[in-house]
Write a sequence for this structure.
């Protein structure tokens, strides 16, 4: 009986770590470490850097809807004012509810860009604040100030 328990203990001591490492490795490979869609960009950038055509790869890379919206809003902010850009953001969130998860990031980016537009004048940038995306515009404006 003692010999059987000894042999069973040795077998478990060998097999258990192998099983734990294998299942842990498989579990880590299934975890979504990056937001969906970003993996393609990383793979594309990594593969293109070896070929030497990274600028071409970036140009040909598909723009995500939130990046296109961000570019459009920042352009509106530059040419008009932050209030108009925030109004467009609110309208875009109503028209495309799938983009609402990016709303806080977009509003924060607008707040930071507004402070840059007005050369660090946070009060002027804050004067355009709208109740869009839980005050993220104000957070972005304050974070850009210092």
């Amino acid at each position: 009986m003692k010999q059987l328990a000894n042999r069973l203990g040795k077998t478990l001591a060998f097999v258990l770590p192998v099983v734990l490492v294998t299942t842990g490795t498989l579990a880590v490979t299934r975890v979504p470490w990056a937001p969906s869609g970003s993996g393609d960009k990383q793979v594309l950038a990594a593969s293109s850097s070896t070929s030497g055509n990274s600028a071409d790869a970036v140009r040909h890379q598909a723009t995500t809807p939130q990046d296109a919206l961000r570019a459009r809003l920042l352009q509106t902010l530059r040419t008009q004012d932050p209030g108009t850009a925030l109004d467009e953001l609110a309208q875009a969130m109503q028209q495309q509810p799938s983009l609402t998860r990016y709303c806080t990031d977009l509003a924060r980016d607008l707040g930071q860009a507004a402070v840059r537009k007005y050369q660090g004048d946070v009060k002027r940038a804050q004067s355009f604040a709208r109740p869009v995306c839980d005050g993220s515009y104000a957070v972005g404006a304050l974070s850009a100030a210092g």
Q: What stands out?
A: The radius of gyration is 25 Å. Residues 37-60 have pLDDT under 50 and may be disordered. The chain has eight helices and no strands.
